[in-house]
């Protein structure tokens, strides 16, 4: 297939491209910069110039492809809700050229959308659009397209990691470096699910190749790692002290991450493994944190 990939030069996109190429697919990669275009061409990827802020450029890219993988997202968490709305507009623009065909669109969401109730493990069969998580906008946009006859499915991300980047954990690392200490809120019992980048890239390929309308897949290897353990490993790796802070201190100490630091994001991928024959085998999140690069 000729697959249009948004976010092609990003953390996950950079791993998805070689996975797709190894399986014989051709790639049309979205980029907004000359630097990004150069990186894509060096990998033998055809370049499509565009950006999330110009939805018509996304529509034009999708028109040229047999399938679309949407990975691009603005990760400025100080304005998370607005960026989720921007993602919904991007999904609508991508779907505009796919209605009436069986060409698949694979969108990206977060595992929390599949949480049935507070404290319960997220599952693929749950679509909870009533929760306050702004990322519901992405899956709501996907559902709208599904009702219009678009072959849309979704991958829900946990903390995708290697030794250089670790999803939301990377922001906690940056804060710890800046503050000179690693902190967790209260008892640090909130759980975050995780998946190695190589396993996540393989999942994107499998989901695109199967192209099941309405399907939802959880990119989850480890179902739930306590935030306290994550923070302690950060402290050990950076040789920084670790301490618990009161909930009232979270805003000052963690900024935009304060909300996420107490959010339980445990998730199962049992259905995903069965449906796609996906068997994650990469290193654990804590192993990658223990070996993370210091630069």
List keywords for this structure.
20% strand, alpha/beta, 7-stranded parallel beta sheet, 295 residues
Strand residues, percent? 15-25%
Sequence of strands across the biggest β-sheet: 3-2-1-4-5-6-10
> What's the helix count?
12
Identify the overall geometry.
globular
Mean pLDDT: 95
Helix content: 25-40%
- Distance from N terminus to C terminus (CA atoms, Å) equals 38 Å
Q: Which structural category do the helix and sheet elements fall into?
A: alpha/beta
Task: Explain what you see.
The protein has 295 residues and is an alpha/beta fold. It contains 12 helices and 12 strands. The protein has a 7-stranded parallel sheet with strand order 3-2-1-4-5-6-10, sandwiched between helices. The model has no long low-confidence stretch (mean pLDDT 95).
Task: Produce a short descriptive summary.
The protein has helices spanning 13-22, 34-42, 55-63, 80-95, 136-147, 169-179, 197-210, 227-238, 250-254, 258-261, 270-276, 285-290, and strands at 2-6, 26-31, 46-49, 67-70, 104-110, 151-157, 159-161, 182-185, 191-196, 216-219, 222-226, 242-245.
